[in-house]
Amino acid sequence: MGLATIFSRAQVGIDAPQVMVEVHLGPGLPGFGIVGLPETAVRESKDRVRAAMDNAGFRRPQWKTTVSLAPADLPKEGARFDLPIALGVLAASGQVQAENLQRWEFLGELALDGSLRPVRGCLPAILKARGVKRCLVLPAANAEEASLVSDAEVYLADHLAEVVAALNGEGELLRPQPVEPAADGDLLDLSEVLGQHRARRALEICAAGSHNLLLIGPPGTGKTLLASRLPGILPPMSEDEALEAAAVASIAGMGLEPARWRTRRFRSPHHTASGIALVGGGSKPRPGEISLAHGGVLFLDELPEFSRHVLEVLREPMESGRITISRAAVQAEFPSRFQLVAAMNPCPCGYAGDPSGRCTCTPDQTRRYRDRISGPLLDRIDLHVEVPRQSLNGHAPGEPSAAVRERVIAARERQARRGAVNARLDVAGIRTHCSLSPRMADFLEQACERLQLSARAHHRILRIARTLADLDQSEALEMTHLSEAIGYRQLDRQPPSGY
């Protein structure tokens, strides 16, 4: 008879709660039972564990084996508990020294010959193990993810026998090799965009203040070209940002390139994507496009062609930076702090207002087309910019991304000293850092009245003005900053004159 406890980690959204694998060998007919809300793959682990122990040369105990996965009310899924269950059986039967197990955690799927197969979503477990100062043993095939967290004590193994030998002091496990992040040299460069000076300026403001951007123009004017250049002018990700984004990719089963893990992602779902594809979901909640774009850019081309219901679910994560998915058995939360860049045509045919006069849409058709996007969603997009058709003759190459990025980084550093990027300034922050003179306040009030802007739009104008001031390295907001910010809020309308 014997009792052993092994530490492991479950997966719930981006969290990795601790699971204690308790193994008891007691009197009774030989059998193997698992309790603690195991789903099918976990219940099947008893057969994999038996075969792996036999083929690895270990003695299978001839007792009644009971495995408890605690906490019992937390659903357990996947084959990640194979390795800790096997080690628990071996420790309870005296084949593994149990004295030092309290400082270890284990994840891994067992093959029938005892070799270890990779598990999905191990990066959140690495971060949690680092937080409680425990060593974590992973399959060697998860080395790429393990190499991302340089200060975590992670060990790699190819076979169950290697882990047992290390725990018994008869061998050592390998450590993952840290990988230096690669330079962002292959990002698309803004110099390839000819002309479109107002749109380029809006893209720089978008990057400097982490604002959302809407590009409106006929087909082929460079909207997608502009949007795809945004990651190249954004500041580099901090380690915490990059690890959180990599954790989402790990849970989604996406391949991680260790040398590229700090590169901001650019996600561009098709307009036929469902709500679940965009925000995540399923009976076992998985991250959607908005979470896969965490820390990067979410580009929605042909915005009115998306289902209105699909677009409306963006409103909460755009404000909070997180999305909660609730199902009958589980509730999962995923990060979704992305920058939204959307593009649309001005009318169904795409040529409203074009100097060629080839638009064939009636005013009613144009109105219905634009009404596919709700006012509350448009209100949450800071910058509305027209991208008109233009001649490509006579345009020199534009300013390269590296030069623009330097200004963006300088503006972000000013914001970091204030405690938050401008797009996420709260009311107190706006009051403190976006103060206006009486003359400027009156000007903004008239503009909001004439353009019929909401209180939310009023605050977003002030945030944009603050970003413009940061790009100019100015502590105070000037009338030029306020006027330009108002001009980005609505197309085909002008702020009041007289100032």
TrEMBL record:
<dbReference type="InterPro" id="IPR001208">
    <property type="entry name" value="MCM_dom"/>
</dbReference>
<dbReference type="InterPro" id="IPR014721">
    <property type="entry name" value="Ribsml_uS5_D2-typ_fold_subgr"/>
</dbReference>
<dbReference type="GO" id="GO:0005524">
    <property type="term" value="F:ATP binding"/>
</dbReference>
<dbReference type="InterPro" id="IPR027417">
    <property type="entry name" value="P-loop_NTPase"/>
</dbReference>
<protein>
    <submittedName>
        <fullName>YifB family Mg chelatase-like AAA ATPase</fullName>
    </submittedName>
</protein>
<dbReference type="Pfam" id="PF13541">
    <property type="entry name" value="ChlI"/>
</dbReference>
<dbReference type="InterPro" id="IPR020568">
    <property type="entry name" value="Ribosomal_Su5_D2-typ_SF"/>
</dbReference>
<feature type="domain" description="MCM C-terminal AAA(+) ATPase">
    <location>
        <begin position="288"/>
        <end position="383"/>
    </location>
</feature>
<dbReference type="InterPro" id="IPR025158">
    <property type="entry name" value="Mg_chelat-rel_C"/>
</dbReference>
<dbReference type="GO" id="GO:0003677">
    <property type="term" value="F:DNA binding"/>
</dbReference>
<dbReference type="InterPro" id="IPR004482">
    <property type="entry name" value="Mg_chelat-rel"/>
</dbReference>
<dbReference type="InterPro" id="IPR000523">
    <property type="entry name" value="Mg_chelatse_chII-like_cat_dom"/>
</dbReference>
<keyword id="KW-0067">ATP-binding</keyword>
<dbReference type="Pfam" id="PF13335">
    <property type="entry name" value="Mg_chelatase_C"/>
</dbReference>
<dbReference type="Pfam" id="PF01078">
    <property type="entry name" value="Mg_chelatase"/>
</dbReference>
<keyword id="KW-0547">Nucleotide-binding</keyword>
<dbReference type="InterPro" id="IPR003593">
    <property type="entry name" value="AAA+_ATPase"/>
</dbReference>
<comment type="similarity">
    <text>Belongs to the Mg-chelatase subunits D/I family. ComM subfamily.</text>
</comment>
<dbReference type="InterPro" id="IPR045006">
    <property type="entry name" value="CHLI-like"/>
</dbReference>
